[in-house]
Sequence to fold (321 residues):
Amino acid sequence: MRLTKPFLLLRLGSCRLESFSPVPAEKLPVPHILLTWNGLGGMLGAAFPMVVSTSSIVTSGPGASVSKPSSLRTGRVFDIKRFSTHDGPGIRSTAFLTGCPLRCAWCHNPEAFVLHGLDDGANVREFTADGLVRELERDLAYFDRSGGGVTLSGGEPLSQAAFVLEVLRKCRERELHAALDTCGLVDTGNLASAARLARLVLYDLKLMDPARHAEWTGADNRRILDNLRMLDESPAEVWIRLPLIPGANDDDRNLDAVMELLDGTRFRRISILPYHRIAAAKYQRLGLPNRMEGVEPPSPDRIEEIRARFAAAGFDPHIGR
Fold:
């Protein structure tokens, strides 16, 4: 296809003129939209079709930009797990999105950050928000019978915040219970918006000491704790998730610090998630070093001891979910 008339290539918002010349359409930046502009009383509409780039839209000031229109925005998903009973109430379908700001030594989804920037169609699927919701709500009958729904996980789903917020809005429109599983190291505004849209936030707490947190996850925990305080002041339903990692965060000092922190909040529901070695094969397949090589899962007696400690302190602990 070749445009035979001159066109205006504008960046919306600032309406800055990018070019004004006949150009073959196949050489235009992709993606783009061919429109007819009827501005200025229609004087230019017939003669000047307008091509608007959707990949770099300026809203104000030099270089300011926003995401693509929601109808074109896509998200990257590396797995969908159906019939999950560990990612919120009832039977759920969990979508795992690429991207994560942390590098936890025990991460059971390392493909989340390995695949995030790769063009890997074999292992990553791109969805529009509508497309992902339609895919997840195929299991609606199971959600209705069990009080379940969908969960957005990762990685860190808010690494793709604009897409996730659009998915959560559409779940609200469909009256579909949606949970957000987050590590907490995210933009506070994005988390606040997501918490208003989601029916449930699953919030990870790992280590209370900032230096130890950085040692085991690659980042300190200051923003994570600040975001938890923000959620405490919001009406969002929040379940705390505590991965129980031998040698990393299962010592009494850290557990006492977790309870002390949570005692000053309204949060009482705690999911204790014992370490497992299911991801070992992933590290080998991806060629990644496995810092947890040789680490044994916590014993049933130790798990029960920790559960009982949280219960005695007035919390509502659950093992594995």
